[in-house]
Amino acid sequence: MIWGSVGLIILLIAAAPVVAERLRRPMDARARRMGTGDFAELSRGLTYYQWIGPSRGPVVVCVHGLTTPSYVWLPLAQAMTALGIRVLIYDLYGRGLSDRVAGRQDRAFFVGQLHELLTALEVKQGVTLMGYSMGAAIAAAYAADHPALVDRLVLVAPCGLGIRQTRFAEFVARVPVAGDWLTRVAGGIMFRRGLNRTLEVDPALPDILDRIAGEMGIRGTLPAVLASQRGMLVADLADTHRTLAQTSLPVLGIWGAEDKVIPLSSLGRLAQINRAARVVEVDGATHALPYTHVRAIMSALTDFLRQG
């Protein structure tokens, strides 16, 4: 009897992540009805994208971060259109309205998605590539791998030169099996808590926490976040930035002075590696600065675009 109860408990524990994942909503045609953009059929599946602004003009391509899909860029994108800029936002695989793709999500995975998307959309002119958090690491990697296609690089709270994660995030990324179990069972709650601690200023996206909660309720999102943590988030891109420093590519780095995720020491690393890079520190800003300090970012971006 005792051993039977123990076996049942073990079975329930083992089944918990499978059951939890099956109870989440699929990313299907019904879920995609909310999208106001379009979809590109790439080699690994559908990628959601949206053009914002004039039909012609200089192009800024925006790459979002680990858990916040492309809508995180909307406040900045709207501000950029006032400058006559055409903005392209898109959802990384495993986020937003893009397909959930199984397997390792590393540099080649994300750079490949972006390159396929720009090719499919026939974006051939040099673009300003702008990345946020993990998206900044992707943007830097893309600029190094495809220098002819990037005219300027903007890094907002960039990963790749140092990061502070929560104990939960560090554990699940480092420990296989147990990390996978915890992510699928409790990841939604824990990642939302991590985001909540960055919102010390009223956001331009007032429903951001509710949106992220909904995002974590979609089947395949949490495994994708974990795969990115293990494959891209903590990668050290010092060599990538050294490669960029040897080119004439204008680089702008923007940090929040109160960022608890990306330490200011990483700003120092960028300045040391690439002495031509411009660095801007935004007072009072946390890691959420793309949707809490739009004016400050636009001020730095406008100067950069005029002088770059």
Question: What tags apply to this protein structure?
Answer:
single chain; 308 residues; alpha/beta; 11 helices; globular
Write a brief caption for the model:
The protein is α/β, with parallel strands linked by helices and 308 residues long. It has eleven helices and eight strands.
Please provide a written account of the structure:
The structure is a single chain. The chain is an alpha/beta fold and 308 residues long. The protein has one domain: 3-Layer(aba) Sandwich (Rossmann fold). It has eleven helices and eight strands. The chain has an eight-stranded mixed β-sheet, sandwiched between helices. The longest helix is centred in the N-terminal third of the chain and has 22 residues, at 2-23.
